[in-house]
Structure formats: structure tokens, C-alpha cells
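Please check our next protein.
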Amino acid sequence: MEEELTKWAETWRKAGKALDEQKLKELRDPMYYQNHVQTLNAMLCSLPKNHVRRTTGLIELQKIIKRMIE
């Protein structure tokens, strides 16, 4: 059983390393951005424009928790 777990862990360790290498290879390739420009633009366009967050919401969360406790 322990040997199987060791083999399983080693397999995932190797897979993680291979995936990291593949990701870096793709990100370094100039054609990656050309091939994915539509997706990248869609992601950027989906961000809210001209919206400045003045708070993280922590104060509001603390108020809610305080009401729940009382």
C-alpha cells in the first residue's frame, strides 16, 4: 500500500513538473499571444471599467458578523 502511494505521489510530481514546463514554453512563444488574442481581449473587456473600489468589504463583513453574534 505504501509503495503504491509513493508511486502515485511521484507520478503526480512528474506530471506537475511537465505541466509547468509546458506552460512556460507556451508563454514564452510569441505566437501564443497571436493565437489567443481574441480570448485575451475578451477577458480584458469583461473587466469593469472606471470602477474604483474604495473598500475591500472587510468593514461591512465585520458589521454582519457582529449582528449575527449579538
